[in-house]
Write a structure and sequence with these properties.
Order of helices and strands: HHHHHHHEEHEEEEEEEHH
Number of domains: 2
Radius of gyration: 31 Å
């Protein structure tokens, strides 16, 4: 009989919405999200701006101070947007679909009179040098033409990255300028790179390339020669050379724009 009486007793009343809101003010965002799935009334109580306003101000103060245009957006939704954006920023990028051994690097320096120096190097010949530095920067030895020392000349420099088998090419730099070649001297060229993607032709990216020319004295003493060319990809934010993987990720946007199979194969 006692068991029948217990079974016939009505269920305990649900807590009032005032009680729910009072309890909710002590819950963390994850627990609030779980509790809001219990029922429609719980969802309504747990979604109150009075609850989420201080949470939003604590975790994402910039979103909490958005102008009046965002006044109609629930604070709970603003928190979810901020959390999703923060998670995305912390996500580790995928391995690049390219490796240095997939590439060939070609640098050419010329004047109006002809080619001054050039160098073509497969990426696998530069792997050890690049890996030792840990950044996307390398040097190539040259044995260029003899130049008149100290005379300013109009110089054209180009740096191309070729995908092995001539399956693609990307011009990293193409610049012109006046340079006076002096033994023991250096010449610098730089150029901001385009942004990868649909707007690459109109928008600059946050990276740039630089090219350094090292000049030495000709052994016969009749002039000077370009001995070495150094190239690299730099971040314009802090003017440091980017890591090898970041440089390869940038290049693959231009060298592998539609070759998804190739990218996935190399990522795996």
């Amino acid at each position: 009989n006692k068991q029948k009486q217990r079974m016939s007793q009505p269920p305990p009343p649900s807590p009032s919405w005032e009680t729910l809101i009072l309890v909710a003010t002590y819950l963390d965002p994850k627990t609030l999200a779980i509790a809001s799935c219990v029922s429609k009334s719980w969802f309504s109580s747990m979604s109150s701006d009075n609850i989420w306003r201080p949470i939003l101000a604590t975790h994402f103060p910039s979103l909490a101070t958005l102008p009046s245009a965002a006044a109609d957006v629930a604070h709970r939704r603003l928190f979810a947007m901020g959390h999703a954006a923060a998670t995305h920023r912390l996500r580790r990028p995928l391995k690049p679909g390219l490796s240095l051994s997939d590439l060939v690097f070609a640098v050419s320096i010329s004047t109006r009179e002809g080619e001054v120096a050039s160098s073509v190097r497969p990426g696998n010949m530069l792997t050890a040098d690049v890996s030792s530095l840990g950044v996307f920067r390398y040097s190539m030895r040259c044995d260029g033409a003899v130049l008149r020392e100290g005379v300013e000349e109009e110089v054209r420099v180009t740096w191309n990255v070729v995908l092995r088998g001539w399956r693609g090419v990307f011009t990293m730099m193409e610049r012109e300028g006046k340079v006076g070649f002096v033994a023991g001297g250096e010449g610098w060229f730089s150029q901001e790179l385009p942004a990868p993607g649909c707007c690459s032709g109109a928008v600059k990216s946050s990276v740039a390339v630089d090219l350094k020319v090292v000049v030495g004295e000709e052994k016969s003493g009749d002039g000077v020669r370009v001995e070495e060319v150094s190239v690299g990809i730099m971040s314009v934010v802090d003017w440091r050379y980017v890591g090898v993987e970041d440089g390869l990720r940038y290049l693959q946007h231009f060298l592998l724009p539609n070759n998804a199979t190739y990218v996935c194969k190399n990522i795996q």
